[in-house]
Amino acid sequence: MFLGKHFCRLDKNGQFIPPDEFSRCLTSDLYITQGFDHNLWVLSDSSFQTIYKKLTQLNLTDPIARLLFRLILGSATEVRFEGKGSISISENLREFANLKNEILLIGQGDYFEIWSADLWNIQEAEIRNLAANANRFSAFDITIC
C-alpha cells in the first residue's frame, strides 16, 4: 500500500527513483496519467485495468464521458519498473504537472500521486484548513467498525 509523503528529485531525463517503501509495492508494468488536480497518478497494471473497465461501461455518446476518456487514457503512458530502478515521466506529463527538480510522491493506497513542490504546497494548505474540513467532509460516512 502506498502511504505517506516522500520527496524525490527528477533528473535531467525526467526520471526519479522511488523510495524503498514505494518500490516494494511497485509492479514491473506501471501507468502514469494525468490526475484531476494538476498532478499525476502512478498506477499498477491491475489498478489501471480496473479504471479502464469502469470507463468502458460509460456511454460514449455522453460528452462528459468522452472528456474523462481523453483525460485518463489520452494522457496515459505505460512504463517499466525494474526493481530498484528509476521511473521515467514523459515530457508532456511533466509539463502538465509543472514538474521541475523537486517532486513529491503522495501515497493514496492502491496508487500514488506525483506533485510539483509548488502545487503541493497549495494543496497542503487546503488540506490543513480545519474549519473548511469540518464542513466539506461531514457528508462522508467514515466509521471504524
Brief write-up:
The chain is of the alpha+beta class. Helix content is 34%, strand content 25%. It has one domain: Chemotaxis protein chec (3-Layer(aba) Sandwich), CATH 3.40.1550.
SSE layout and pairing:
Elements: E1 5-9, E2 15-16, H1 20-23, E3 29-34, E4 40-44, H2 45-56, H3 63-72, E5 77-80, E6 87-88, H4 91-96, E7 102-107, E8 111-116, H5 117-127, H6 130-136
Describe the structure.
- The structure is a single chain.
- The protein has 145 residues and is an alpha+beta fold.
- The chain has helices at residues 20-23, 45-56, 63-72, 91-96, 117-127, 130-136; strands at 5-9, 15-16, 29-34, 40-44, 77-80, 87-88, 102-107, 111-116.
- The strands form two sheets. Strands 1-7-8-4-3-5 form a six-stranded antiparallel sheet. Strands 2-6 form a two-stranded antiparallel ribbon.
